[in-house]
Each structure stands twice: as C-alpha cells, then as structure tokens.
Write a structure and sequence with these properties.
348 residues; 434 Repressor (Amino-terminal Domain); 12 strands; DNA-binding
DNA sequence: TTGTACGCGTTATCAA
DNA sequence: TTGATAACGCGTACAA
C-alpha cells in the first residue's frame, strides 16, 4: 500500500495492471506471460493465464498499437462495393490478411475523388500499416498518393492502378487481355469490331483501348474512330454507347463489339434487345471480367475471366510483405486472365 | 532549453507536441485549435492550423482513441462476402457509418463458428464502439454474444439474428415473407408445394419454414413431410435437394417449390434442367432475397425482394444510436420485403 | 526470472 | 485564453 503511482482505472475493463495487482506481480510479468515470451516462470505464467481467463481479459489493441507503432491493420479503399468484382477481391484480401494476422479497415470512395482523399487520410490517421487501393474514376490529382507514399505509408494499387508513383501495382494485363479477346473475334471472321471504352483517364480504360487497337493493327484491320464509343464502366453507359452505335447507317454498323467490362456489355445487350437485334447473329458482343451474371445473361456472355479473389490475395500478400520488409515497393504484378467462351460471340 | 520532461519523438511524424514546440505554445492549445474548440484565441488558432498544414500533420487516431476510450469505429462480421446480398448490406452499413463519422473494420467468419468467435474477440480487442453481426451457419453456442453484450459492447444483429440475448435485431420478417410467397403460389392454383429449407438452427431457416407451414395451414393444405428437404443456403445444396425431390414417384412430385433463398433456387433449377423438366410448366419455383442473378436466370426467378442496402443502413444507424445513447438495445427492427413476380412461378 | 521507469500521442481536468 | 499534469493501457530497455 505504498504511495505508488498506480493507475486508478476508472473504466470497468480488466487490464494487465489489474491482473498484476491481483496476483501481486508486476504488469510486465503479466504482459510477458500473455504474449508467450520465454522468460517467465511456468507457474507464474499459468497463474496469469488463469486470472486473465477468469476475469474475461481482452487485450487492448489500441494501447498495444500506440506502444508498438504498428496496428496490424491494413486499410482498403474500393471505388464500389456492389459490383461482384470487388466483393471477391475483398474476400481475397481478407483471406491473405487473416492468415497473416492482419485486420481490415474497409473504406469506399463511391468513385468520388474527394471521398477517396478522405478515406486515405482517415486510414493514415488510423495508422494502418499499409493501404490497398483501387482508384476512383474521377481521380485526376495523384498527389494524395504521392504524399502518402513519400511519408512512408506502404501503398499497393490493385485493379485500377497508378504507375510511376513508386507503388507496387497488381492487375491483369489490360492491353493483352483486351487484345486477346479482340483477336478471338477477328479469328472467327468478324471485321467491323467496335469498342465500348472506359474513361481513358483510368489505367484500365486506356490499357484496354490500346489492346483493342493493337489487335486490329496486328491483323491489318483499319481503325474506325466512329466504332470507339466511351461507355464508362456501368450498365447505363453501355446502353447509351450501344444506342449511339445503332444510330450509324445499317451498313456501317459493327458486326461485333468488345465492351470494356461485363456491366457495359449487359447494358449494350439490353439496347440490342430493345432494337430486336439478335445476339450474336446480328451483332456479337464480348465483355471482360466475368461478372457472376455473365453466365446467366439472356445470351451467355463471352468474356475474359478476371481472377478477382486472386487479385485481392496477391495484392494483400504483396502489401504485407512490404510492410514486414520482406519485399520492396514499386513492383508490377500481373495476374493471369482466361478467355471464357460462351454464346455471345457466336464462336461455339 | 530547461530540463523539461519533453518527448523525444523518435518517429519522423509530426505530432501536436512538435507543433506546440515550434509555436511556443502548449500541446493542449494545439489540440484545442485542431479540434475546433471554442476557447482558443482566433489568432493562435490560425497559427496552429497553418503550422499543421505546413508540416503535413495527420492526427493520430490511435492515441486519440486511447485517451477518449472511443474509436469511432464499428466492427462488422459477415458470414460470407461473395454472395451479392452481403456486399449490398455492407454498402448500406458504410453509407450510414460514413455519414455519422464512423469507420468500419470488416471481418469474415466464412460460416465458421470458430472464426466468428475469433472475429468478435479481435473486434473487442480493437475496442470498436459496437459490433454488427450476421451469424455464421455453424453457430450453436451463443455465449460469445452473451459475453460481449454483458461486457457492454453494443451489439446489433442483422439478417441472421439471435433473439433473446438482449441485442437489437434487424431483419425481414422471415415467416411473413415466406408465407406470402407461398400464398402467391397457392393463390395461383398450386397444391403440392415443396420447401427447400435452410438449416433450422439458423433463425432464417426456421422462420421461413414456419411461414411455409403457416401458409399451407391457412389454406387447408396438408403438410407433406417428404416435400420438405433441407438444402442449406447455397446452390449446391439446392441442387441436391431437388435431386432428392425428383426421386419421388412422378405423381407424388410437387408442382411448385419454395426455396429458402435464391442461390438454393438456382441449384434446384439446374437440377430441373438436367432432368429436362420445364420451369414453370413442369414445376414452378420461387426463391427469396432477389439475388442480382434472379432477373437474368434462364427462367427469371420470382422472389421476395430483400432490401439489402436498407438492412445494412438500418442496422448501422441503430447501432450508432445505441453507441451514442440515443436508443436502447433489445429492439426488433423489421425491414419490409416486396414480392417480385417473374416467370418462374408461372403466374404471369 | 522479475521489476522499474518511461514513452507511444492525445485529451480531460483543474489551476493560473 | 492558456498551461501543467496526469491518465488512457501496453511494451521496450535496462536494472536487479
């Protein structure tokens, strides 16, 4: 009962201090026992563990994080949640994180650059050990990324990546992916191939457009600018873009369409249906990403399967490796895609 | 340069202390200015804010949380992430949380009770201000919930709820929901109606089964135990369950099936297809939850629309209200469902 | 093996 | 309006 500088502990929760007092040992001994350090008398350890269990002790990760300057948490920023792709990615991230003992703080930019900046700052404030991000569509200013990276926050981009800021990027090879599916169409005799493109400000949009051009080029097909229509990444945009294509004189219309992703393809298919055009007879169409709905679509959609789970897992593993100093930043990781042929391309 | 007990601050990051030193004021003043407290000289405030911006100061939420014993974070536990329902719920949660200034730590039980217990303990360790959970299928022991609730952790169940432990539950009225869709079939002349049930250990499974029974009962239809087959919540189980029904002698087969949810219905539809049976002519089928794929299924699926986004939003708002003391725990919140008639029931 | 002293970065409290 | 002090709960470093 000496006049020690002992913590009052107003909150009702059990702490190492309390356990220590009850057992007549120091807090450090309790801490060591709880963390399985070797230098603790087995008997003492047992007493501590028993007391901890009995009192329903839950270690305070916040205090631990503050002391260790490490939260064992990674922040995730996704531009949308509903689309089937991101949930799968998140599952992959969760999987890798869980095995490595990390937790996930999930934030959502809703495709808005302000919200994205908010999210990043929030995550920095929460002192996450690293950030995993797929950029919002509206982002033009990459200084937020630059700042974070310069401040030493491990940063890994996935899917929608930003190269040249020194962060590791995990994605499919958009160019190759789009080129391959375009060549699939060319190989089956299509000649007037249109492209519903994403915004070219986003790496995906640009990369895929390039792949499309590349494929035409390789096979000596002329690039017809009127056959490239920006649709964005969503169903609605795909619908409008197809409407635009259908306004072309009948003989100038494409015989096949490469959509930047599956949702855009769905929108386009809807427009075709409304115009009583048959898929693939009147117009073939292919997508990209293998949305869960692709198989079930009115006309099952030919698409490039994008291993979402694996992207998430790869990205999280890469980030964690960098956090733990086992790998260097600035790598470029490519995840393989696979052509999934269904009916919409008319090749089966 | 007096021999003060000043923090060395080995890490390179800016802190309130550092700003305070640079400006020759106390840390408290900086803190107050940064948090917009009223009792700060406007001039001082401006100097502080300027210095903060210039030095790229990011508040340390960890330290703040430790001091305030409040993390402004809510923990979320979902049993799966891929299924389209949960991503939508999460979006709803995120929406409500974001507006209220809370963040989300996402965990995933993978339908496993051990992982779920882990997740809850993790969240308690991280001192989240409250927990939002949809229980895993394999859970039989509810003491983990009990303990957490008794320890004063605000707890709200959504979708797969546990009543009687004093926590608020947010869900649809499973009984009513299933009864209504069953009655829809009865009203259109079906008489031998089967039910692919979920595990009855889960509230949803039990509630829906009861609703099904109730509907038959209300209309004087005899309950035929052989027409109730447990399918679980997934496609695979739905497939097997339908296989089982199809082993019944032809004249004892059901003319319609109420599946516990859409994925189970998809599995059942696949089995019907493989047996060359037509939907709905040979057998009608309805689901529940309005999976994104329902509309696109080979035979568009009649189902009860479950407002996933709203469930998430309602649950998060309820939890936050309880965290902030604006509402009491133990409430029961029902979110309305809506019958969505498509082709699979043969009623259009 | 165990204990002491102190820092992690912030805020509440009370005094000036 | 401002500042000094202590506390939030835990871990590192060093001493015993």
């Amino acid at each position: 009962m000496a006049g020690k500088k002992n913590t009052p502990n107003t909150s009702g929760r059990t702490t190492v201090q309390l356990i220590a007092q009850k057992l007549g040992v120091s807090a450090m001994t309790v801490s060591r026992a709880l963390n399985g350090k070797p230098n603790v008398d087995p008997k003492t350890r047992d007493r501590v563990l028993a007391a901890a269990r009995k009192s329903g002790y839950t270690p305070n990760h916040i205090a631990r994080s503050l002391a260790l300057r490490r939260t064992e948490t990674i922040g995730v920023v996704v531009p949308e949640i509903s689309h089937s792709f991101f949930p799968e990615v998140i599952r992959g991230i969760e999987d890798a994180a869980y095995s490595a003992g990390y937790h996930i703080v999930l934030t959502h930019s809703a495709e808005d650059d302000c919200r994205e900046r908010d999210a990043i700052n929030t995550l920095k404030s929460k002192r996450v050990d690293g950030i995993l991000i797929s950029t919002a569509q509206s982002v033009t200013d990459i200084s937020t990324y630059r700042d974070a990276i310069r401040q030493g926050v491990p940063f890994v981009f996935f899917d929608r990546v930003v190269q040249g800021v020194g962060a590791t990027c995990v994605s499919i090879d958009d160019g190759d992916c789009c080129a391959r599916i375009t060549e699939h169409l060319i190989g089956h005799g299509y000649r007037a191939i249109a492209h519903l493109s994403g915004p070219t400000t986003v790496s995906i949009g640009k990369g895929r457009l390039n792949g499309y051009k590349e494929a035409l080029n390789r096979h000596g097909l002329k690039l017809r600018p009127e056959l490239i229509v920006e649709s964005g990444f969503h169903e609605k945009g795909g619908y409008s873009a197809m409407e635009e294509l259908l306004r072309l004189p009948a003989r100038e219309r494409p015989d096949a369409v490469v959509a930047v992703n599956d949702p855009a393809a769905f929108g386009a298919m809807k427009a075709l249906q409304e115009h009583k055009l048959r898929i693939p007879q009147d117009m073939a169409i292919v997508g990209m990403s293998d949305d869960v709905r692709a198989e079930l679509a009115i006309c099952p959609l030919t698409t490039m399967r994008q291993p979402a789970f694996e992207i998430g897992k790869t990205a999280a593993s890469a980030l964690i490796a960098e956090i733990e100093g086992r790998d260097k930043p600035g790598r470029k990781l490519i995840v393989e895609t696979e052509l999934t042929v269904r009916k919409s391309c008319g090749c089966v």
